[in-house]
Amino acid sequence: MSYDSIIIGAGMSGLAAGIRLAYFGKRVCILERHTTIGGLNSFYRLRGRNHDVGLHAITNYSPPGGKKGPLNKILRQLRFQWEDFDLSPQCGSSVVFPGHTLRFNNHFDYFEAQIAEQFPREINGFRQLVSEIDAHNIGDLGQTWISTRARMADHISDPLLINMLLCPLMFYGSPSAHDMDFNQFVIMFRSIYQEGFARPYQGVRLILKNLVRKFKSLGGELKLRAGVKQLLIEGKQVSGVMLDDGQILEAKNVLSSAGSAETLQMCGAEVPQDDRFTPGDISFVETISVLDQQPQEFGHEETIVFYNESEDFYYEQSKEPVDVRSGIICSPNNFEYDRPLEEGSIRITALANPDYWMNLPEEKYIEQKQYWYDQILESSLRYIPDFRPHVLDVDVFTPRTIKKFTGHINGCVYGAPQKILDGSTPFNNLFLCGTDQGFLGIIGSMLSGISIANLHLLNPK
Amino acid sequence: MAPEQIRSVILDILARIAPDEDLSELDDSVPFREQMELDSMDFLDIVMELRKLYRVQIPEEDYGELVTMDSTVTYLTPLLKDAESTV
């Protein structure tokens, strides 16, 4: 079987790239090792309930009728209507550090006013930083790593404000510890503070199902349970792939969303070492608690709370199995839907130690998940009313779960610290999209697939 | 195709790229970019849609001709004179 393009991975980026290619008449096949689509943003059913895997919120919100920003860009590129994603905006979120709570919603003026009120001496510096963010070109594919902390320190002198601003952005997208690349920072700052959060009533499955439906209606082929064991290499060219079951598929080019290091591993031993292709090591444990009431009923009305117990913020691979000093509390109920979700739920996420979770024997693993679920909830109660009496059902996932279902080394969620912005690899017709290319979040990952498909597969120079 | 048919073809392409847009108010002499916030990715899509529909190749140096409806129709008229309309 021979294709114009083979895409590895049926996540957001692979499906979006697939739609572009199929729309413009390419013979394209998406290969997914797992039994279902979605990758890092998938969904599942457990004990009669639907859950999302990664989704807390979709960032990059734009109201209907909007024309600018990444959401409108991908809607146009994928020929979707605004209604197809059915986005309801957030109710309001906050960053909570000792002595300060900065609230934000999908109106940036509100956030700016919060900073002016709580950090009056820093507001001019903050505005200068925002001007720098507004002027930054994320489309420049040739840029290299710049320290965000250094750039922020040029404008803001209070380290507490720097940490508070960074906290949500790092939690929702930094592949590197302590600091982040300024380009990544700009992408995250715009997507979270300037555009904001939203969620489809049905969760991420609505978007994924619309992507697959469109891909297939355009003639694209999707193979599930079709893991790529090896990329077939001839000199600087890839000629096709060998699947786990030994089947060989040929293609003129291959686009991989498997991750940069993960993709090179599939090429075999002949690939030269390149430190741009070093996998990330930041991962998380997430707890999902299904409740017998809506969170508003016990007094929790916020969409997402980012918390940290000290003025210093340690965004790094946890030394403990889970770092309970900081975390994210997300309530999927607290978006402005036109009707309430069927059940209440609270998701709490915290930094974790991948090695610890990978190496536990099975019986210990189950026990430790329970233990750390309790620890995470205990720690979060400083920021949310005690909802433990309302818990009906629980699920916990760890770096081990993420590795198992996505193949990402270390169960890494935000990919490699070094992004490959132009999607190129050591091979002429092998390209990268997804988390390791550089755009992040649900909308960002679709934009990643679209951009790389446009750049290399539809309009090659 | 006559210029008026070419205009319909372009409208059809714009409606596919931006299905939420009200195109009945489009001013043929004002740049698309200003009226619809089209960016370079969208212009590339107009070019690719034309290539897909009519196999017409528009070199990159000519993208500037696609700035308004008027200029686009003028530019495409000789290129599409023998093509059959698809709309």
TrEMBL record, chain B:
A Pfam family this chain is assigned to: PP-binding
PROSITE patterns in the record: CARRIER (PS50075)
InterPro entries: ACP-like_sf (IPR036736), PP-bd_ACP (IPR009081)
Source taxon at top rank: Bacteria
Lineage: Bacteria, Pseudomonadati, Planctomycetota, Planctomycetia, Planctomycetales
Name of protein: Acyl carrier protein
SUPFAM superfamilies: ACP-like (SSF47336)
Sequence ranges assigned to domain Carrier in this UniProt record: 1-80
